[in-house]
Design brief:
Layout (H helix, E strand, L loop, with lengths): L26 H15 L2 H4 L5 E5 L2 E10 L5 E2 L2 E2 H15 L2 E13 L4 H18 L2 E10 L7 E11 L15 E4 L5 H10 L16 H9 L4 E5 L5 H13 L3 E4 L7 H10 L13 E4 L4 H9 L8 E5 L7 E4 L5 E3 L13
Parallel strand pairs: 5-6, 10-13
Antiparallel strand pairs: 1-2, 2-7, 3-4, 5-7, 8-11, 8-12, 9-11, 10-12, 13-14
Bound molecules: magnesium ion.
Length: about 350
């Protein structure tokens, strides 16, 4: 695994090396956020630790989210860095109960990246934005020297209008809430890893990269009591469930048998020694809803193709801060955060 140094003011010299693979949903990443970013930038929006910041502008509640995309390779079965950069930010806005309105995009290009490839990326961004009903209204381009980048990196920022009148975030999660998952997990990571590792299949595993704002916002408009939503991107289900358990001070128990993993994704996991629970998705989300709304919420989710396989996977119950998984054979284990990121540069 490659390492690179960041000039970063972490006081302990032994920690002053940030390793590739520690930028994601693992324990190191949490420490980076806590010890460096929150220490300096702390404010109410950041302290809420949600996918998007929510604040008032006049009488409207506005959500803002930003995300950097460095996926390697930039093109993978089922999408590329351009569509991914739209889906990721649209989804983060939706997780705060916001209807996405506009995006901005910054491109960091490596000298020598083929113009034809850039065209592919930009066209796929345009198509993804159009399908999501948003426009890319501002942008920036920077070029770095050959060998100092890896083709193309993209940063997108999104603005949305919050539709929910109640706060959607970890602070609203309650004991007994139902945990719903919108579909199978792990396909994005599996698609990227199969290209990276040169694995070939009769049918390639396609990334699940897609927007989920339509089903997410439908829950709200249909009056479902939604307490929290989050998309299991970097670090997968394992990371987001642990984050929410920690930030909401609740226990979460999920049943592995109700979490769908495609057969070929499971095969890739076994081959590469990966856990499907920690594999990134880019077109899935988890919703914490009031338990009396389970059936209605599942009905709404299943009426959208992107969440047609939605399931109840667990409950908010158990020891505060802890995530437990009932395994296929009925054994319960604690699902802990990984010490590092399982798969670097997956998004
Ligand atoms: Mg997110």
């Amino acid at each position: 695994m490659k390492e690179f140094e960041l000039q970063c003011p972490i006081p302990n010299a032994s920690e002053a090396l940030i390793k590739m693979g520690h930028g994601g949903g693992g324990r190191m990443s949490q420490r980076l956020i806590d010890d460096v970013f929150l220490k300096s930038f702390a404010n109410d929006s950041l302290d809420a630790r949600h996918d998007a910041a929510v604040f008032n502008v006049g009488s409207k509640r506005i959500a803002v989210s930003t995300d950097g995309f460095v996926v390697r390779p930039w093109r993978f079965p089922g999408g590329n860095i351009g569509s991914l950069a739209v889906h990721g930010t649209v989804n983060d806005l939706a997780m705060a109960g916001a209807k996405p309105l506009s995006l901005t995009a910054a491109f960091i290009l490596e000298e020598g990246f083929a113009m034809a490839n850039l065209q592919v990326v930009v066209e796929s961004m345009h198509a993804a934005a159009k399908a999501a009903g948003v426009e890319i209204v501002a942008g920036d381009t920077k070029v770095v020297e050959r060998g100092k980048g890896d083709g193309v990196y993209i940063v997108t920022t999104g603005i949305g209008e919050v539709l929910s009148t109640s706060t959607i975030g970890p602070q609203s999660v309650r004991q007994g809430d139902a945990v719903l998952l919108s579909g199978d997990v792990g396909r994005h990571s599996a698609a990227v890893m199969s290209v990276r590792e040169g694995l070939s299949f009769e049918e390639p595993v396609l990334s699940d990269s897609a927007t989920v704002h339509h089903p997410a916002l439908a829950l709200i408009s249909e009056g479902i009591e939604v307490h929290c939503m989050r998309d299991p991107t970097r670090g997968g289900l394992c990371s987001i469930l642990n984050e929410i358990a920690r930030d909401a001070h609740v226990g979460i128990t999920v049943d592995e048998r109700s979490i769908d993993v495609q057969e070929d994704v499971r095969g890739i996991c076994e081959l590469l020694g990966l856990d499907p629970m920690s594999m990134a998705c880019e077109g899935r989300f988890v919703a914490f809803v009031a338990h009396q709304h389970i059936e209605r919420a599942l009905g709404i989710l299943r009426s959208f193709p992107v969440s047609a396989e939605a399931k109840l996977i667990g409950r908010v119950e158990g020891y505060p801060g802890e995530v437990c998984v009932r395994s296929q054979i009925g054994v319960t284990r604690v699902l802990d955060l990984l010490s590092g990121e399982q798969l670097p540069r997956i998004c």
